[in-house]
Amino acid sequence: MTYLYIYRMTDDTGFAPCVDNDLLTLACCKGGQIREGKIINTGLRYKIGSKKNGVDYSTDNVYILGTYKDKLLYVARVTDVVTMEEYYSGMSKGRTDDIYSLKKNVLVRNDKLRKQNVHTDEGRIIRDIAGKYVLISEDFVYLGKDAVRVNLVEKNARFQETKTYTGDTAEEIVKECFKYRDGKKHEPTKPLKKNGGCS
Predict the structure, then answer these.
(1) Whole-model pTM?
(2) DSSP β-ladder status, 38-40 and 33-35
(3) Around Cβ 38, how many Cβ atoms within 10 Å?
(4) Residue 150: its pLDDT value, please?
(5) How wide is the angle at C-alpha 14 spanned by C-alphas 109 and 134, nearest 5°?
(6) 180 pLDDT exceeds 50?
(7) Please, what is the Cα angle at 112 between 110 and 114, to 5 degrees?
(8) DSSP letter string over the chain?
(9) Tens digits of residue pLDDT in 115-166
(10) Cα–Cα distance between 132 and 83 in angstroms, integer?
(11) Which residues pair with 18 in a beta bridge?
């Protein structure tokens, strides 16, 4: 089965998703929640990584698609999932999203990107960690500042939501988006090194 999750991005800085060395990762953002003071493991990363909803990236074709200003920013097939602890034990080294460290088996916010004020708020850190998993893709299209308009208007997420499509509908959207794979490296719209925000 094919599953597609579409969400809107408020920023494109190269942080989430992070694209480097032919690998796309979603390690921060799209994480958990805090409800009535309780930390809830939820969000897109948790939903896909936990496999609790019957979707299994190892047997199903699972895609995530991010739009920015109603344009196709990226589409990626999830090719692997690791826990945040695994990712931040060395896999993240040298990547833009390398903002956590594992100390005594506990994830802690390190000093990377602190000056740019990226995920320094305690609530944001808690939500990141509550996402529990890092989505990894070796099969993706990332267009960054070269994002294009595709016929997604009626299918796109409108607010802070994630739209889910399955089967033929998902396959049609993915096929259309993968037409934009051009083999080029595209820069983020507002790279962190120039602008400070987060996705």
Answers:
(1) 0.93
(2) antiparallel
(3) 7
(4) 86
(5) 55
(6) yes
(7) 90
(8) -EEEEEEEES--SSSSSEEETTEEEE-SSS--EEETTEEE--SHHHHHHH-TTS--TTTSEEEEEEEETTEEEEEEE--EEEEHHHIIIIITTTSTT--EEEETTEEEE-STTTTTT-S-SHHHHHHHHHT-EEEEESEEEE-GGG-B--S-TTTS--SS-EEEEEHHHHHHHHHHHHTT--S-----SS-TTTS----
(9) 999 999 999 999 999 999 999 999 999 999 999 998 775 778 777 789 999 9
(10) 6
(11) 25
Using an 8 Å Cβ cutoff, are 29 and 180 in contact? no
Residue 103 contacts by C-beta under 8 Å, 6 or more apart in sequence? Answer: none
CA atoms within 13 A on the CB side of 121: 6
Q: What does the alpha-carbon distance between residue 35 and residue 157 come to, in Å, rounded to a whole number?
A: 23
The two tokens of residue 103 are 């100390």
User: Residue 33 is encoded by which pair of tokens?
Assistant: 């929640």
Report the alpha-carbon distance of residue 188 to residue 84 in Å, rounded.
24
Whether 19 contacts 116, CB under 8 Å? no
> In Å, how far are 45, 58, 110 from 54, measured between CA atoms?
14, 12, 34
Q: How many C-beta atoms lie closer than 10 Å to residue 158's C-beta?
A: 9
